[in-house]
Amino acid sequence: MVVSSLDQLGRYKALSKNFADAIAWIEAGSWRSLGDGRHDVGGAAFFAQLMRFETKPLAGCDYETHQRYADIQILVEGEEYVMVRPVAGMDVKTPYEADRDIQFFEGGKSAPEHRVALEPGVAAFFFPEDAHKPCVARSAPVKVRKLVVKVLVS
After folding, report:
1. pLDDT for the residue numbered 110
2. Contact call for residues 123 and 72 (beta carbons, < 8 A)
3. Domain 2-152 has what CATH class?
């Protein structure tokens, strides 16, 4: 997991060519004119999803992981918490779905969880080893618009 301000994203281009290309695309800002939904903007290296949702109480959210893609999550509007913990030792709630590159988890004997506060101007990177529980309300449910850039890591 990495948490960064948007103005410091460039330092993470060194992670891989796919990250470099995805971050350059984010920095260029063309995503700001896109509508909600999936956008295949980076060839095989990355794609973007713009979404709107309302945050929920912690109990209404699930941990998820992805095996082929890392997430770069950026709030455009609103605020949310994302809970994060290592996936090792967690209990599978829903088996891995390869076509969606997602698996859901609950509880288990994983290390303590971390709470990441997302708001406009902050980016969080979640890698395959990072179980993350997005959409958590910080105080009361609020409407959110979020950019998630899925970067191919395997």
Report:
1. 67
2. yes
3. mainly beta
